[in-house]
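Hey, can you fold this one?
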Amino acid sequence: MESTNTLTLGQAYIVDDKPMVLTDITYGRYSFTDGRYGFGRTLGRRASDMKILDSLKVADVNAQDILDKLKASVQYMAEYYQSK
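Sure. Predicted structure:
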């Protein structure tokens, strides 16, 4: 089953009732981040995911803010694990 929606990498969408940025589309899977390291959502494996993907709405937020938050979160985790 193919998604009929055209999604754009780097665009923010409302996923699970919160803004998330589409960060990766590989192997038919759509990966979204909410800006926290290790959190987000991946869609595309199940038929029910296609229904969700087809109904996503663009979020009225600055996607770069979410990506900057993700970068800071990754940096924090890297520093944390390097300090151990």
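The chain has a mean pLDDT of 91. Let me know if you want another pass with a different chain boundary.
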